[in-house]
Amino acid sequence: MKRxxxxxxxxxxxxxxxxxxxxxxxxxxxxxxxxxPRVDILIDPxxxxxxxxxxxxxxxxxxxxxxxxxxxxxxxxxxxxRVRGNTSRWSNKKxxxxxxxxYDPEKNFYGLEKMNINGEHNDPSILRAKICWxxxxxxxxxxxxxxxxxFYINHAYYGVYLNVExxxxxxxxxxxxxxxxxxxxxxxxxxxxxxxxNPEKYKFEQNGRRTYALKTNNEYDDYKDLAELINIINNSPxxxxxxxxxxxxxxxxxxxxxxxxxxxxxxxxxxxxxxxxYLYHNPVSGLFEFIPYDLDNTFGVxxxxxxxxxxxxxxxxxxxxxxxxxxxxxxxPEFRDLFSYYMDGLMDNYxxxxxLFSRIERLHNMIRPYVINDPFYPLDYGYQISDFDNSLxxxxxxxxxxxxxxxxxxxxxxxxxxxxxxxxxxxxxxLTYNHPELNEPLDITVQMEDDDPAGIYLMFSKxxxxxxxxxxxxxxxxxxxxxxxxxxxxxxxxDVEPWTASFFVRASDNSGNVTDYPCDPIFVDIPxxxxxxxxxxxxxxxxxxIADNFGEYDDWIEIYNKGTASVFLGNxxxxxxxxxxxxxxxPYLYLKPGSFILIWADGQVEQGDRHANFSLNxxxxxxxxxxxxxxxxxxxxxxxxxxxxxxxxxxxxxDGEIVWxxxxxxxxxxxxxxxxxxxxxxxxxxxxxxxxPVAGDIVFFDTETSVRLFDIYxxxxxxxxxxxxxxxxxxxxxxxxxxFESGETVKLIKQ
Length: 751
Prior knowledge:
The chain is of the alpha+beta class. It is built from twelve helices and 37 strands. The strands form nine sheets. The protein has a seven-stranded mixed barrel with strand order 2-3-4-5-6-8-7. A five-stranded antiparallel beta sheet has the order 28-23-22-31-32, with no helix packed on it. Strands 33, 34, 35, 36 and 37 form a five-stranded antiparallel beta sheet that branches. Helix 2 (128-139) packs antiparallel against helix 6 (251-264) and helix 6 crosses helix 9 (333-349).
């Protein structure tokens, strides 16, 4: 089995890349944690009363949002506002969601579509989640940005809150580089245990919501990818598990998250409570990414009577229930050693006392003046400012069993005593390559981790020749990002003729360990063969030609399948910008051979899945049709045009062929040309057809033959094999053409 799907495929253009390794963006303006921004919500008091009367409701109410810093103030009108969270909805200090795009899908706040204002009501320090988010970002896993804000509703002070970045498709795009895959929010009881091969079985609900809730691509509601991942986790033969899980799941980044859970005492997670994580299926790499979520029950917060500071670091999961992902990964020696490697590095480089404690104290001192007058801080657990002051060092209340600093010291001490550090085998957890055209080189980039590396090489074969060895570089000069960052790259030079390559990466260390990645070589054909789709016709100024399903005369683009097999459109993209290849995803359907589909270029995606998120400019523009993410959004077809005439189209003279022309009689959704047989050469007497004209539903021939019936535009409507009649069914009155297998044609008039 080829391991192609484990790869991160090339980026938007040949020679550029999207990366499966998360690249967390900088904190930026909204998440600046060196200041305390002020967030104001102005909302109708009646609507606010409705929100508090039913905290379980997700109904959003219109509000005004104001974000104020010492240097600036931003105001957004007409945003959505509601309570958010799970059990915290019934707390006195609630958490809130601000949705900037509720009433205007294009509205955002510095690129954010939503904002989570979290009360952190059971944490007397109001710091635990913030410390965890910063730690995860340090480790390089996909993690939310977070900072403290002071929060007001209708000018009333509600206290100190944590602003935590919402996890949605924009979050995914900023970390992974692609946002078109399935994003699942996984809440209790999300144990990833196998139920059935039927994907529908994973749509089960708990407390009125799906355990694995699909947050993107809802119109398709397709759980096949999740069902396949769970099947791989649970049912892979032991001798195939490492390869199969590596080709479907980003194992190293999950192990980083697991190491962070253990060192912060996070039990409200996958491995212990089967709760609070996201899974994103990256269609570019084929890998699922694990994304942590909800990190306030950490650093000694406990509801189970368990000493999380001293718990076995290799047995973190709930002992009474199955956690197949965690358990199976930890049973693989190389994965367990990699987990230990991350644990060791975290304790040495991040969770050491001096550097971390100084950061915690800075945050503590910065928010303290605002906690003093926080009216909601005391309401749930009776916290006072003295509890806040003591929260870094002492036990506060029944469920907070440790101060943050003592917990970190004891967890590090206990973990260090339990840690089993073994030499790593080389670990390769990211491989990318481009999809070049002819005369362009094939660039390969890989990430490698090892505690004692010796060398890393590309093993490649060109045009089925002998495998050769080529050195990869980490010097910053070979498309390998920064020198010394364990990102390695090399290049296979191009040929002027079509060529093929197969390759894998081999890494070795000074202990004699060797890793080949992936398990089977990757095969690349250059140039890649594009699907048989073409942009066949378009109209950039539709005034009266054809109306859409809303009665609007919008611009349109016609796509034609000129091949002999159906083509899936749901992983193809259409754009009015050749540099923005994934601008609009096409409908989730198959286009049959010889068929057309009409796309409305009106910028009104809310009107249906055949309405693109852009419109056409009649003065001049470009249209591009692009392949799936797994090909690096390879260009399938394009057209660049100048000034267009109103109610004219620009069309290929023959469907799917090269020559274009201005067309004053557009043919949206059907053939651009009348077939050659619809001409003066039609012989009315070649074969007897009767009755003709025909008033009924049956027409007869004087021979038994195969026939096809077309309208005057060349669209095939009916066909029959080896018979002496044709049933016309409900055809409208008009002129039609009958084509016999001999090539002879007859005009037929239906009255």
